[in-house]
Amino acid sequence: MKRFISPTGIGMFLLGASIALGILLSSQTISNAVVRMKQANNIRVKGLAEEKIVSNHAAWLCEIRSKSGELRQCFDELDRSKNAVQEYLKTAGVPDAAISLKSIVTDYEYKLNEKGQKTNTLENYILTQVFEIRTSDVKLVDKVSKSVTELIRNGIQISSFPPEYVNVEIEDIKMRLLAKATANGYERANILARNSNGKVGLLNSASQGVFQITPLNSTDVSDSGQYDTSTIEKTVKAVVTLEFNVEGNSRN
After folding, report:
1. For 121, which of 49, 93, 111, 168 could close a Cys bridge (C-beta 3.0–4.6 Å)?
2. Residue spans per domain, the chain
3. 40: pLDDT confidence band, cut at 50, 70 and 90?
4. Average pLDDT of the residues in 56-73
């Protein structure tokens, strides 16, 4: 025997479902309003700070090279080049304590066959040796690294690599800039809050953003930051993100 649901039962069911749905939607609306109120009572700003600095330490490499079919002759040629570079650096005013001479590296050059393929027949020895100069006299390194290749005119096979310039106090500079960036962010937050009849309250969160060291007057920006070592004078920039409570920002 079939059972039927009365119209009255269906109506009660639909009424209950409608009430439940209404309560759910009302709760969601209230929840969203609370979230908006919380968000409206917070303010997020970025603080910026930058400073011009001068490098106080330089590291520079130059390499001498010799090539010959006879190992003894190759070594003698390299030794002549080494003496010439040492004399040049001494005359330029580079102190002995700043110079480090690396071990000689030996390489081999083999003859090629008519197809341009390497054979097992040794043709030349190749010797290289690196001078490393580290000093606080950055201007001296800048000058010598550019002029040392004049030795090529005397038959010296030498290569000069780009010097690296750094400031050894960079961590102290970073801390100072982070403090300035934080103060700048607080000032920005106050300006925004005052214009909405509010007052900056407690700090909710703070995070460090991009910290970068770029050549002076550079406009380069990188999300991951930069660390320029190619120039003596640099610009250091720090960014922080701050979020504050804002009190009494309702309008009458």
Report:
1. 111
2. 41-56+167-252, 57-166
3. low
4. 98
